[in-house]
Every structure is written in structure tokens, then in C-alpha cells.
């Protein structure tokens, strides 16, 4: 088999060991005679897979007992609607007159999409934005114009397209839940779940196949859905049925479970974080060496997962990509909205892959 390194932003590279195990178990899971894909979600075999995945994830992220882990569908964009539908029914403390306001910090494409969708359900206040500066940083927290009694504050803690990552947990007033889109960096660094009301993530980067969407929600926030919230997306309903109110994405949960077990065997999230710091350091150092390449993000909030970069001479873009492909370095083309290049180096990207990219960057730059 050809050795390649896949830098796709998602769906993205998965650990080889996980894919090998899934292949070995494809036709007959643990002597059951069935593929996981063929199992009833209510049967004892799948229930055991689900329970193990849930408890391994709880352990990996040290999820406190008063938080529910929900395995859902709908993707990150689906959640942009599901969140307001689940949270806007809340009686706000302190009691605030007028319609509900959702606070947003606009740091890139994904928080931008989230706020646009939320505006269909409530008034949106952009508490801070780095749009005018081309989304190159997280606006300093002391300049955020938060709304007293906001329904919640929504942030995207890693902007996959813009390559901007939070290196702090935003402060919120008492009673204002903090909602975080962690789609593209969950499990890549240690987090304090207790600081958040809701954490959500599409699976297709650091967790498993597309189609599974993870929600971690504090229990008291299960009570605030609007009456029009669809039953299958009503978190309380989903939690009460242990993610089986309707048929969950069973195969995705199975693969996610294999990924969680794999991460535990590697030393958990703390160990992944150390590896990710090292991988990002290696790549940024090559990009920063001279002005042949550039990454425009403020050094304090450069993403460890998604690293957009530009060639000084953009007429060389196609040549760069063709040369990369010839070396098995795949999917380096930047998102169409921003152009340039992007290397996504999720947990499953080995350091050898980053080193191979660095070698190619140096070679192409004639260093
Ligand atoms: N949020 C972030 C941070 C993302 O990177 C993405 C997808 N790349 C989404 C949301 C949207 O996810 P989906 O396509 O699963 O709806």
C-alpha cells in the first residue's frame, strides 16, 4: 500500500490501528457473527460498545458526573440550530426584559456561520469580532461587549478554516452558559469541562467518521428547550434515552469508541497535547523560517490543529500541490473561501507526516 499523509481538514486521517481493528472485526464482531453495522442498537452487543465508548470519553475528558454525553447526528451546522432550540426556553437570570439575546465572539468562518443561524431564533450580539483584521486573532477578552442576562455565549474555540485557536477559557457572568464549538480540536488538548455549559463537536476530525455529532451538556441545561424543539434533537429526551431515542449512528459510535480506547492506550489527552505541541512547533518553525511562506495568525492564538499558510508567490500554488501529491502529502489545498494552503494535523497525524511536510516545504523553498 502506498504510504500517504492525509492533511485533510475533515473527514480526516484516523489512527491506522483503529482502521486495522475495524477491518479485522468488520464481518464478525467479537464472535457475534455480525458486523457492528448489522446490529440492533438495542441489542446487548451494541449496548456494550456504546457504554464503553461513553465511559472512555468521560474518562479522557474528565467529564464531571453532572454532565451528559450525547451521541447525536446533524453535524456542527445542525447544532447551530439545535442549540438555540434547546437553550432559548430558559428563564434568564438575572431576569432581563425584552427578547433573548445570544452573545457571539466572531473569530472566523465557523463562528460566523453559527451566529448567522442563531439569528433566525433570537437577537444576536456580536460581543467582539476580528473580521476587520482578517480573522487573525481572538479579540482580547477585556474588550468583549457581553450582554447582561444573555441566553448564552457562543464561541468556536478552534476555527478550522482560519487557523485560530483559543488559549484561554472565556469568562461568563453567573448564570450565562458558555457554549463552545470544539469540532476541530476536541481531544487534542486538556480542557476543564466544568467551565462550559455545552461543548459540541462533529466527529469527522479527531473522533471518527462523519455523521456522529458529540454534545456534552450540563444537566441543568436540559430543562430549557423551546416547545418547538424537535423531539429527536431535544437534549433532555436524548439524554433520558441514553442517545437512543432514535437510532443513533451506530457504526460511527463504534469507531469513535475504538479511537477513545486508542487514545487511552497512548496516555490520554495530556499525552496527545504534548505530541500536538511538538508537531505544531515543527511546522510553524518551517513556515516562519523566512518569507517564502506565511501564516498570518497572531502567534498567541495559532491553531495546533489547522495551519493555513500562503506561498509568497501564489503563482506557484499548483506546482506546490502537485509536488506534494507526488510525495504522498495529500489534501493541502486551503479552503476555497481563503485560498492558499492548509495543513490539518489532528491527533492521528503522526509526527513523521509533519516531518515529511516540513522536508518538502524546505525543499520547495530551495533551502
Ligand atoms: N464547526 C467547525 C469548527 C467545523 O470545522 C465544521 C466543519 N468543518 C463545522 C462546524 C461544520 O460541521 P458539519 O459539516 O459537520 O456540519
From TrEMBL:
<comment type="pathway">
    <text>Amino-acid biosynthesis; L-serine biosynthesis; L-serine from 3-phospho-D-glycerate: step 2/3.</text>
</comment>
<keyword id="KW-0963">Cytoplasm</keyword>
<comment type="function">
    <text>Catalyzes the reversible conversion of 3-phosphohydroxypyruvate to phosphoserine and of 3-hydroxy-2-oxo-4-phosphonooxybutanoate to phosphohydroxythreonine.</text>
</comment>
<keyword id="KW-0028">Amino-acid biosynthesis</keyword>
<keyword id="KW-0808">Transferase</keyword>
<dbReference type="InterPro" id="IPR015422">
    <property type="entry name" value="PyrdxlP-dep_Trfase_small"/>
</dbReference>
<dbReference type="InterPro" id="IPR022278">
    <property type="entry name" value="Pser_aminoTfrase"/>
</dbReference>
<dbReference type="InterPro" id="IPR000192">
    <property type="entry name" value="Aminotrans_V_dom"/>
</dbReference>
<keyword id="KW-0032">Aminotransferase</keyword>
<protein>
    <recommendedName>
        <fullName>Phosphoserine aminotransferase</fullName>
        <ecNumber>2.6.1.52</ecNumber>
    </recommendedName>
</protein>
<keyword id="KW-0718">Serine biosynthesis</keyword>
<keyword id="KW-0664">Pyridoxine biosynthesis</keyword>
<feature type="binding site">
    <location>
        <position position="160"/>
    </location>
    <ligand>
        <name>pyridoxal 5'-phosphate</name>
    </ligand>
</feature>
<feature type="domain" description="Aminotransferase class V">
    <location>
        <begin position="4"/>
        <end position="357"/>
    </location>
</feature>
<dbReference type="InterPro" id="IPR015421">
    <property type="entry name" value="PyrdxlP-dep_Trfase_major"/>
</dbReference>
<dbReference type="InterPro" id="IPR015424">
    <property type="entry name" value="PyrdxlP-dep_Trfase"/>
</dbReference>
<comment type="similarity">
    <text>Belongs to the class-V pyridoxal-phosphate-dependent aminotransferase family. SerC subfamily.</text>
</comment>
<feature type="binding site">
    <location>
        <position position="181"/>
    </location>
    <ligand>
        <name>pyridoxal 5'-phosphate</name>
    </ligand>
</feature>
<dbReference type="Pfam" id="PF00266">
    <property type="entry name" value="Aminotran_5"/>
</dbReference>
<dbReference type="InterPro" id="IPR020578">
    <property type="entry name" value="Aminotrans_V_PyrdxlP_BS"/>
</dbReference>
<feature type="binding site">
    <location>
        <position position="42"/>
    </location>
    <ligand>
        <name>L-glutamate</name>
    </ligand>
</feature>
<feature type="binding site">
    <location>
        <begin position="246"/>
        <end position="247"/>
    </location>
    <ligand>
        <name>pyridoxal 5'-phosphate</name>
    </ligand>
</feature>
<feature type="modified residue" description="N6-(pyridoxal phosphate)lysine">
    <location>
        <position position="205"/>
    </location>
</feature>
<keyword id="KW-0663">Pyridoxal phosphate</keyword>
<dbReference type="GO" id="GO:0004648">
    <property type="term" value="F:O-phospho-L-serine:2-oxoglutarate aminotransferase activity"/>
</dbReference>
<comment type="subunit">
    <text>Homodimer.</text>
</comment>
<comment type="pathway">
    <text>Cofactor biosynthesis; pyridoxine 5'-phosphate biosynthesis; pyridoxine 5'-phosphate from D-erythrose 4-phosphate: step 3/5.</text>
</comment>
<feature type="binding site">
    <location>
        <position position="204"/>
    </location>
    <ligand>
        <name>pyridoxal 5'-phosphate</name>
    </ligand>
</feature>
<feature type="binding site">
    <location>
        <position position="110"/>
    </location>
    <ligand>
        <name>pyridoxal 5'-phosphate</name>
    </ligand>
</feature>
Amino acid at each position: 500500500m502506498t504510504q500517504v499523509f492525509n492533511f485533510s481538514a475533515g473527514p480526516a486521517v484516523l489512527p491506522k490501528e483503529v482502521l486495522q481493528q475495524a477491518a479485522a472485526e468488520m464481518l464478525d464482531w467479537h464472535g457475534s457473527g455480525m458486523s457492528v453495522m448489522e446490529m440492533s442498537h438495542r441489542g446487548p452487543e451494541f449496548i456494550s460498545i456504546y457504554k464503553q465508548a461513553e465511559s472512555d470519553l468521560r474518562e479522557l475528558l474528565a467529564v464531571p458526573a453532572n454532565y451528559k454525553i450525547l451521541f447525536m447526528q446533524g453535524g456542527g451546522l445542525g447544532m447551530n440550530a439545535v442549540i438555540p432550540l434547546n437553550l432559548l426556553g430558559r428563564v434568564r437570570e438575572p431576569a432581563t426584559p425584552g427578547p433573548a439575546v445570544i452573545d457571539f465572539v466572531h473569530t472566523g468562518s465557523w463562528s460566523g456561520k453559527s451566529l448567522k443561524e442563531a439569528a433566525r431564533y433570537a437577537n444576536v450580539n456580536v460581543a467582539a469580532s476580528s473580521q476587520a483584521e482578517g480573522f487573525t486573532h481572538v479579540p482580547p477578552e477585556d474588550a468583549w461587549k457581553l450582554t447582561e442576562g444573555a441566553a448564552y455565549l457562543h464561541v468556536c474555540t478552534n476555527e478550522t478554516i482560519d487557523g485560530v485557536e483559543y488559549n484561554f477559557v472565556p469568562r461568563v457572568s453567573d448564570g450565562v452558559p458558555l457554549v463552545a464549538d470544539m469540532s476541530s480540536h476536541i481531544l487534542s488538548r486538556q480542557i476543564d469541562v466544568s467551565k462550559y455549559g455545552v461543548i459540541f463537536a462533529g466527529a469527522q476530525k479527531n473522533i471518527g467518521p462523519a455523521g456522529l455529532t458529540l454534545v456534552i451538556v450540563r444537566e441543568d441545561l436540559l430543562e430549557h428547550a423551546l416547545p418547538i424543539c424537535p423531539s429527536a434533537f431535544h437534549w433532555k429526551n436524548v439524554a433520558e434515552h441514553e442517545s437512543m431515542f432514535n437510532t443513533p449512528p451506530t457504526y460511527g459510535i463504534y469507531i469513535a469508541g475504538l479511537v477513545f480506547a486508542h487514545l487511552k492506550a497512548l496516555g490520554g489527552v495530556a499525552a496527545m497535547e504534548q505530541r500536538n505541541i511538538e508537531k505544531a512547533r515543527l511546522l510553524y518553525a518551517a513556515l516562519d523560517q523566512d518569507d517564502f511562506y506565511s501564516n498570518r495568525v497572531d502567534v498567541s492564538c495559532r491553531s495546533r490543529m489547522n495551519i493555513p499558510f500562503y506561498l509568497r508567490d501564489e503563482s506557484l500554488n499548483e506546482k506546490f500541490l502537485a509536488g506534494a501529491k507526488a510525495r504522498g502529502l495529500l489534501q493541502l489545498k486551503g479552503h476555497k473561501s481563503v485560498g492558499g494552503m492548509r495543513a490539518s494535523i489532528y491527533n492521528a497525524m503522526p509526527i513523521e507526516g509533519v516531518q515529511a511536510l516540513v522536508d518538502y516545504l524546505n525543499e520547495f523553498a530551495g533551502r
